[in-house]
Amino acid sequence: MSSFDTVSFRPNAIPTDQADHLLPLRLRGLGLRFDQGTPILKDLDLDLSPHGCTVIMGPNGAGKSLLLKLLHGLIAPTSGRIDWGGLSMDDARMRQALVFQKPVLLRRSVAANIDFVLRARGRPRDLCDALLQHVGLAHKARLPARRLSGGEAQRLALARALACAPDVLLLDEATASLDPASVQSIEAIVRNACSQGTRVISVTHDIGQAQRMADDVVFLHGGRVVEHGPAREFFPRPQSQVARDYLSGKLVF
Ligand SMILES: Nc1ncnc2c1ncn2[C@@H]1O[C@H](COP(=O)(O)OP(=O)(O)OP(=O)(O)O)[C@@H](O)[C@H]1O
Ligand SMILES: [Mg+2]
């Protein structure tokens, strides 16, 4: 795999210390319910700066994946507002990439999966080789993507996300069910993107990973933001009993 430290796929990236005008996220009174049922997300207020890595944690069913889908504009809130630096949701989505736990790949070769995105985004097609190199898949470029292992497929999904040169990378349990080496390599790729100025918002149940990656943590429970604060404060001193229980493996749902 290539050196993660030297590769940038964001040629126009603005240095992080000048990026304060970029896509700050503001949620106000965000709510979601389906078919007049019980509200799933309830009155979320949240402010995220335009850089760094936020990890969203919380038990199964807390509403984490739905929150990411709302942030990416795949579903619309029932109430409240999502404000990505004043952009329309369509414009905001064009500056984001979302990686799911189970990568959804085109039934084409590994390289064609990247090439498709580069073409769609009007980016230089010759970035394909560098991206595949970056995620350690250069030797699989011609293989049908469906033949990749789980970890390889996830690395391809990340490479495809980076091909969009996203300002915001949304990750939904992107390393769940991967082996430790694959987890490490994906964390390194994400850290590299973050250091290049890509804003990362990642959902994970992997507490070790959250501690390695997070600048700040949002803890969701029962569709509400129970805690939001710096990772260095959240992990040693969670303020709520539910977060304490979750971190110690006692909170089931
Ligand atoms: N279309 C839908 N209609 C009704 N309820 C839904 C719908 N989609 C999701 N839900 C419910 O919303 C809740 C939150 O779902 P979500 O997928 O966001 O949870 P999560 O926090 O990502 O959980 P996990 O850690 O298991 O991935 C769940 O109880 C789920 O059953
Ligand atoms: Mg989920």
UniProtKB/TrEMBL annotation:
Molecular functions per Gene Ontology: ATP binding; ATP hydrolysis activity
Name the domain of life. Bacteria
Occurrences of domain ABC transporter (ranges): 25-247
Chain's gene name: tcyC
Q: Which keywords belong to this entry?
A: ATP-binding, Hydrolase, Nucleotide-binding, Transport
Q: Report the EC code(s) recorded for this entry.
A: 3.6.3.-
User: SMART domains recorded for this chain?
Assistant: AAA
* Name of this chain's protein: L-cystine import ATP-binding protein TcyC
Q: Which organism is it from?
A: Tritonibacter horizontis
Q: List, alphabetically, the SUPFAM superfamilies matched.
A: P-loop containing nucleoside triphosphate hydrolases
> Hey, what's the signal peptide range on this chain?
none
Enzyme category, top tier: hydrolase
